[in-house]
Amino acid sequence: MRYYPLLLDLHHKNCLVVGAGTVGTRKIRTLLKASPKHLLVLDTAPFSTKLTRLAARHPELVLENRTFSANDLDQKHLVFACTSNRTLNAAIARGCQQRNILCNIIDDPQAGDVVLPSIIQRGDLLVTVSTSGKSPALCRTLRQELDCRFGEEYEILLDLLGRIRQAMLPLGQDSDDNAECFRSLVNSSLLAAIREKDTDEIRTILARLLPKELHPSIGALTHDLFPSL
């Protein structure tokens, strides 16, 4: 296994994207979802209207119409080389390696440290698929299959489990007891009840599996799971 899988918190990180074409724009949009501290984007061509509008809504996004300079790597934590110039992309890769900066190189993935997986997102649930850069086509196919597999019910289930976790912490129960409770919830018919939007069944399951101390809170835990109902 060449690549070590991880999820990276960018809230206090500075990022750089060189090249704002179709691929670069996709990287920019995904990066903004992770709320980096600062995102600098460089391109010698005029920026698209979509990107300028995006920058107007995101103060952390800075667009500069100019060529790349080695100094642009200063204080950066993650860099994407997305230009159509292989020589420039290779130079960015070398600069990042010299400074120990994580980088993704669009036309030569193995020249960088990072390959990006396909992502299926349901709220805080992230499912990622990677072929280590060997077959983007297979990655897309697998992503499409998983996208059908994981519906919005998984987002709602995870949200509910998060609420339950916060409610259970003050009880001071043994960690093994908590773990067993969550295993029971995950292995129950709770997901199916959420898929069917059956709030009565959801509350019945919770009353059966949650500690008695939380029974008075079941209504509060579930009252807004389905805002449209």
From TrEMBL:
Pathway: Porphyrin-containing compound metabolism; siroheme biosynthesis; sirohydrochlorin from precorrin-2: step 1/1. It catalyses: precorrin-2 + NAD(+) = sirohydrochlorin + NADH + 2 H(+). It comes from the Bacteria. GO terms for molecular function: ferrochelatase activity; precorrin-2 dehydrogenase activity. It is an enzyme of class 1 (oxidoreductase). Its EC number is 1.3.1.76. The keyword Oxidoreductase applies. Gene3D superfamilies: NAD(P)-binding Rossmann-like Domain (3.40.50.720), SirC, precorrin-2 dehydrogenase, C-terminal helical domain-like (1.10.8.610). GO terms for biological process: siroheme biosynthetic process. InterPro entries: Met8-like (IPR028161), NAD(P)-bd_dom_sf (IPR036291), SirC_C (IPR042518), Sirohaem_synthase_N (IPR006367). Keywords: NAD, Oxidoreductase, Porphyrin biosynthesis. It holds the Pfam family NAD_binding_7. PANTHER family: SIROHEME BIOSYNTHESIS PROTEIN MET8. This is precorrin-2 dehydrogenase. The lineage of its organism: Bacteria, Pseudomonadati, Thermodesulfobacteriota, Desulfovibrionia, Desulfovibrionales.
